[in-house]
Specification:
single chain, six-stranded antiparallel barrel, mainly beta, 109 residues, Thrombin, subunit H
């Protein structure tokens, strides 16, 4: 079992299940999925097809109708349909009504 402690996390992780679709930016790949855990910088997702490390995608959150560019940065070795994505621009596209305090913009460098 892996720990999900935020030693160097940039924003708090929140368990949240929302339906998404992902479309590869530079190749003909589209898949559906859902989030497992989200934060302002990305998400752990489950998709209908295994995605590969480094794949650039556009994520569409169905319930909010928001879209964002992201990159696959983590693959779960034991669950091939589960991966981590990092948003190109940190934002709350997930529809979380009351996000943690550290999800708000800071003016620090």
């Amino acid at each position: 079992m892996s720990k999900m402690r935020g030693e160097s996390r940039r924003s708090t992780r929140v368990p949240l299940k929302v339906v998404i679709s992902a479309q590869a930016v530079s190749e003909p790949l589209t898949c559906d999925g859902e989030t497992i855990v989200v934060n302002r910088h990305g998400a752990l997702i489950s998709s209908t097809v295994p995605l590969r490390m480094g794949l650039k995608v556009e994520v569409h959150v169905i319930i909010t109708d928001k879209r964002a560019k992201a990159e696959v940065i983590y693959l779960d070795a034991e669950r091939p349909f589960v991966c981590g994505i990092a948003l190109d621009r940190p934002e709350n596209i997930w529809g979380l009504s009351f996000p943690p305090d550290d999800w708000f913009e800071t003016h620090e460098s």
